[in-house]
Amino acid sequence: MPRTMPLQRFLLPAFLALSALALAPRAHAAFTQVNANLAEARAITPVNSSEVYVGTYGGGVWKTSNATVATPTWARTGTADMRYVNSIAARYSQTSGSATVYVATGKGVFKTTNSGTAWTQLTYDETRVVAVDPSNANNVMAGVPGLGLARSTDGGATWTLVGSTVFDSTDVTSVVYQNSSTLYAGFDSREGANWGGVYKSTDGGATWANWNTVGGALANKFVKAVAVDLAGTVYAGTKDGGVGGIYKQNGAAGGAWSGPMATLPIDGSGCGGCPYNLAGVQVLHLDRNYAVAPGRLWAGTGDADGKGDGGGYSMWRLPGPMHSNYNAWSYAFQGPQDIFGEVNAIATFPDVADKVWLAIAGIGLVEGSSLNVATAVNANGGITINGTTTTRFSGIKATRANDIAVSGSTVLVAAHAAGVWRSTTGTAGTFSAFNGGAFGTGLENVIGAAGYERVVGAEHVAINPTNANDVWMSTSGRGLYRATLPTNAWTAVNETGLVNSPVSPISRYIRHRDLRFDALGNLFITIFEMPDGDGNTANDAAGLYRRAAGGSTWSQRLAGPWVGNSGLNKLAQTSATGWLALVNETFPYLSGDSGVNFGTQLNDATAPHTGFWRLYFKDAAWNTGATNVVTAVTNKGLFNSFNNGGSFAAVTIGTPGALATTNFTSIAYSPSVDQRLFAGSLDGKLYCSNNAGYSWSAVATDFYSPVTRVKFIGTTLYVITDGNGVWSDPAPACA
């Protein structure tokens, strides 16, 4: 029997429902947006041929009402809590002329019944997937990680857990309605386990049955997507690391599961040594424009190397009704390409044949058309779908930015899963991919397959202060690279002393937490790497490395690994020659000789605090106007030092009001105004202080995405967000 979900876990009673008018982006004081068009879209939902909702991870929900034009206009809709979107489901009413839209986010399910004019928050738990009955907008299903599958028949006012006695996993990844009565749900699995797979309901989601062994077992239970064609055949898209495939089962007849399904090129010839296989399936989508059974299916893949970082992508299609081979998929587009990322979502439009929109991590939202061309050709530097280069839309400004570097008119932005992008005409210029040219010169051999792999995510970017043409980039699990301007040919850094192998079996665990030059040209990199468990710590790369100015040899100045998450985080300058090496979940280390030695670690005596959790530093900034003052952001609020980081004391903020300094993520002192301090916050705001952190005021009230880093380059303040790009102010003020 289904059980009612506990009130405190998921159900939001009507008297607590929150409604909010759609929010337009607010003014950001004197800030201008530098680069933000590489939206990491996770969902695309057209409700008709013109009205489309796109959910981004970090940047919220965006809507266009003119999707039929070449360059649609976009506006953000919804509340600030809708920043991290996982799934969108919608139903359009011809009677009212408006759409009912459900959005699954990191903070619960949100709903609008008037095409985004007003939104109501229905639940408060992270929700991975949402699906709505195609015939009744009040019937909705929601997948909640760790909880399972929830059902509502009253438009989300109340919810009931279903299938809890049948499901062997709570990791819901996909829910699809075949019709109002028949539904399928996909569940993920775990390495070494035998749970997950596909389940079926024939009573609108009230009860469920295991569908993994009907007629023959489903061979792969790492199900990421489920689709049902017009003939009732069920398809399960699977991904276990970077492998997997598509399995099918004749649901109407109860036949056995078969697969993985074969792949063919567009012209139907043997695939042979195709550079991309249909593996690592992210999404399946039933085309909305073929009424003849079985219809056409689309499949998006990614993460081809299993590193969990969007290592590659391709899109495939199961031929539509004009073809006869429904047992093999043909590719619709594939690499090589400047930047690889996962295909997160696919959408087709009612009454608009052969038009498809794709959400690709690191590239953003793109459109392809003329999908009946017989051959696939990949244009240098462009995405090509069956011979037709797509359009990349630029109106959705929701980049997950990681870092920015500026030298003169050259601006480099490092983006999550998107590599480095460059403008040569300043922050107001046009940005283009800066990842090695059309075929990624210098980056194609990182997994030993020339032409088929690129940098997939830039953690940090830095420009040598003693040589403005010397550019460095650290990546997600790919190692450290270097380029010489104005060319963009990157070279892997394999200098003496630096463990930097992008082909290492454990390179997926390498994360570069910081990369920076000091004023003299000394270069530092912090590497967090989980140990490989081989018993030999000598080949573990974790630690802080230093490369002396003008040299080519690296030395490890702090060694790792650390237990759990106690890995090296970032560096913060404390004086002309002083540095703090910040370590997650423990005290930082101090150097007084430009990072040559970090012989002193702070402790409870030098940074006294109270509470059960240990103190650790998230960021720190040096006030150059008062040469001995350093302010730190910690998990317990702000701490100040008056001896260049040798010891710290907690800062008591006068009349803080609603300000939570524990939400601060990064701080930076103004280089031109003594004691002026800026802090970014997880709530998407920027704060400032004119007295070294003892009182604060809000500068920019909402960047809409968490502010992950603030930094001065010269006298310009840059605000880096996880979902709304980079913002700059050449002369930031403080009330």
Describe this structure in words.
Strands 1-15-14-13-12 form a 5-stranded antiparallel beta sheet, with no helix packed on it. It has no helices and 60 strands.
Task: Write a concise synopsis of the structure shown.
The protein is mainly beta and 735 residues long.
Quaternary organisation of the protein chains? single chain
Q: What share of residues are in beta strands?
A: 35-45%
Average pLDDT, to the nearest integer? 79
Question: Uncertain spans, ≥5 residues at pLDDT below 50?
Answer: 1-29, 266-276, 304-312, 335-339, 370-392, 437-455, 503-508
Query: Cα-atom Rg, whole angstroms?
Result: 26 Å
Distance between the termini: 60 Å
How many helix segments? 0
Q: How is the largest sheet built, in terms of strand order?
A: 1-15-14-13-12
Specify the structural class. mainly beta
Helix proportion range = under 10%
Would you count the extended β strands for me?
60
Biggest sheet features: 5 strands, antiparallel
Shape: elongated
